[in-house]
Amino acid sequence: MNIQDKTREELISELKELQQENNSLENLYNETSRLKKSEEDLIASEIRYRRLFESAKDGILILDAATGKIVDVNPFLINLLGFSHEQFIEKTIWEMGSFKDIIANQDKFLELQKNNYVRYHDLPILTNRGQKIQVEFVSNVYVSDNKNVIQCNIRDITTQIETEKELIKAKEQAEESDQLKSAFLANMSHEIRTPMNGILGFADLLKNPNLTGTKQQQYIQIIEKSGARMLNIINDIISISKIESGLMEVNLSKSNINEQVEYIYTFFKPEIEDKKILFSYKNSLPFSKAFIKTDREKLFAVLTNLVKNAIKYSKKGAIELGYNKKDKYLEFYVKDSGIGIDSNRQEAIFERFIQAEISDKNAYQGAGLGLSISKAYVEILGGKIWVESEKGIGSTFYFTIPYTPELTESVASVYGIPHSEIEVQVKNLNILIAEDDETSDTLISTMLEENSSKISHAKNGLEAIELCRNNADTDLILMDIKMPKMDGYEATQQIRRFNKDVIVIALTAYGLAGDREKAIVAGCNEYISKPIMKKELLSLLQLYFNKHESN
Ligand code: ADP
After folding, report:
1. Where are the alpha helices (DSSP H) in 245-287?
2. Nearest to residue 538, comparing CAs of 434, 456, 437, 425?
3. Closest approach atom of ligand 1 to CA 394
4. Which one of 10, 328, 329, 350 has the fewest beta carbons within 10 angstroms of its own beta carbon?
5. Is the minimum distance from the CB of 355 to ligand 1 under 6 angstroms?
6. Ligand 1 centroid to 357 CA: how many Å?
7. How far is the centre of ligand 1, averaged over its atoms, from the C-alpha of 493 (Å)?
8. Considering only CA atoms, which residue is closest to atom 20 of ligand 1?
9. Is the CB–ligand 1 distance for residue 235 below 6 Å?
10. For residue 190, how far is its CA from the centre of ligand 1 (angstroms)?
11. What is the pLDDT along the chain (551 residues), one digit of tens a residue?
12. Can you give the pTM of this predicted structure?
């Protein structure tokens, strides 16, 4: 039928049909475009995900949520754990070994996973290389390809944990050292104030013109004792500060240990016998084999400390000092029959400020530093220190130092004087005192009054050189080290250029280890540190001038 033959109604109806057809075609086109777009989007996001998966800086494992088997693993985890891709796939993480002991068991893990999210902070796992690392483990469930999968993210936090631990340790150390600093200050304040109280208090009482001679002597003795205690504390503070700051030097030299033991015996005998306690010593090597190379000042300090403690903590009985040779070591001991130490305090007493009797801290004076200094010294010398003790029966302190024999003839030493000889008087010496401090000068002059025929005085190094040059018959120079214009080291060096015979004894107020060596290198014969004790000074005169006379 031609279009002309169609009625108007027919034509309208056909047109409507055509329009409808056209609409559904357009709809179909639109729908197809939309589907195509979402497929492209899906592919693009899958590519993006894959890229993230491949390049992630954390390990990622994909598990089948039903079986727990690994379906995918990213390169970072392969590298971190050292397994190949194949070694992961189709295994459960429990079969991998790395995690097996840690995430209690598979059922529990899958059960926990039903709540969608599992997180373990700080989980130790083992790599294929046998290395233990700490990881943070987080897993989530999601649906992929109509299946539930579990994505596990594994982050290596080994370095972070180590850094955290180090920071915590540093914080604890800082807190501990802060506490120690406060304890140190509190202790020192108490320890210094107590003898100062004795010194200033009794010096004040001495002003009373009506005091009897006996009272005066009694007060003077208290002042002396307090001064000696003060000096001990100052020496201990200097030593512990040097040990703490790592500045403690070791000065090795030849030393005869028999002489040292004998000197300590002679030095403490009067004090011990005053307490009605027996005192004995035992040198187990013959004199010629008793020369060793060691730091004699440190050895001396340790022995002195132990004997002083034995005296302090004993009221009766006996004290014995000595040593035995044990293989390559010398084992020294100081034995007492004093108050003894509880077994649970026998280690702690070697720590700073620790005293055995915590409850009654002030029963015996002391800062609790002596043994910690002794321990540090013994360890610096290459030995050990320990105690065997029974409460109420007594203690024996032992320490070792290496036996490093030195085959030498006896060296002149202040420790070498047999104590019987000390009684002999040295007289008529021509003495020069080089000292800028007036009080010290007066003190030395007074101490040496009976030993001298003439005493000259220099106020600095230059004057000392001049006086020595103009008085060739000078026997002895007491040379202060710290003086204006020229110090004692320099002055001694210059004097040695024209006078090799005069005996020079260096005097210092520092009392630091190493000073003796410096003085000897400068040309001094001996060294003593202030405060000068008459007994020590006379021992040196004895050593140098009695020998000279008998030669
Ligand atoms: P201080 O004697 O100044 O307190 P030390 O470090 O020398 O400090 O000694 C620490 C502690 O060890 C003392 O306070 C004391 O309790 C105990 N001690 C040391 N030597 C002896 C000893 N021979 N007998 C009993 N106790 C001792």
Report:
1. 257-274
2. 425
3. 24
4. 328
5. yes
6. 9
7. 43
8. 309
9. no
10. 17
11. 666 677 888 888 888 888 888 888 888 888 888 888 888 888 888 888 889 899 999 999 998 888 888 999 999 999 998 989 998 888 887 777 667 655 656 777 777 777 777 777 788 888 888 888 888 888 888 888 788 888 889 999 999 999 999 999 999 888 877 777 777 777 777 778 878 888 998 998 899 998 898 989 988 988 998 888 888 888 888 888 888 787 777 888 888 999 889 888 988 888 899 999 999 999 988 888 889 988 888 898 899 999 999 999 999 999 999 999 998 899 999 999 999 999 988 988 898 766 655 544 445 566 678 899 999 999 988 999 999 999 999 999 999 999 887 754 443 344 444 444 445 578 888 999 999 888 888 888 888 888 888 899 999 999 999 999 888 889 999 999 888 889 899 999 999 999 888 999 998 876 555 677 788 888 998 888 877 888 888 888 888 887 544 43
12. 0.52
Instruction: Establish whether residue 301 lines the binding site of ligand 1, counting it when its CB lies within 6 angstroms of any ligand atom.
Output: no
Residue corresponding to tokens 């030593």: 239
Whether residue 394 has its Cβ less than 6 Å from ligand 1 = no
Q: Tell which atom from ligand 1 comes closest to the C-alpha of 339.
A: 25
Nearest to 418 by CA among 286, 255, 256, 259: 259
Q: What number does the ligand 1 atom closest to the CA of 305 have?
A: 7
Host H or E run for residue 122: strand 117-126
Q: Is 346 close to ligand 1, i.e. is its CB under 6 Å away?
A: no
CA separation, residue 181 to residues 196, 248, 494 (Å) = 22, 20, 45
CA–CA separation, 483 and 465 (whole Å): 13
- For a substitution probing ligand 1, which of 312, 371, 373, 391 has the most ligand atoms within 8 Å of its CB? 371
As a whole number of angstroms, the distance between CA 527 and CA 187 comes to: 31
Which residues have a Cβ under 8 Å from the Cβ of 59 and sit 6 or more positions away?
A: 73, 74, 76, 77, 80, 81, 135, 153, 154, 155, 156
**Exposed/middle/buried for residue 498 (C-beta within 10 Å: 0-12, 13-18, 19+):** exposed
Among protein residues, the one whose CA lies closest to atom 4 of ligand 1? 368
Q: What SS3 state is found at 351?
A: coil
- What distance in angstroms lies between residue 19's CA and the mean position of ligand 1's atoms? 113
Report the separation in Å between the CA atom of 227 and the middle of ligand 1, taken as the mean of its atom positions. 21
User: What whole-number distance in Å separates Cα of residue 76 and Cα of residue 61?
Assistant: 10
Measured CA to CA, the distance from residue 543 to residue 514 in angstroms comes to 22
Q: Please provide the distance, in angstroms rounded to a whole number, between the alpha carbons at the two ends of the chain.
A: 163
Question: H-helix or E-strand containing 280?
Answer: strand 278-283
Cβ 154 vs Cβ 137: under 8 Å: yes
What are 130's two structure tokens? 């046998």
CA–CA separation, 203 and 180 (whole Å): 34
Read off the tokens for 478.
């007491």
* Other residues' Cβ atoms within 10 Å of the Cβ of residue 510: 12
Instruction: Kindly report the protein residue whose alpha carbon is nearest to atom 8 of ligand 1.
Output: 368
Written as six digits, the tokens of 545 are: 């001038």
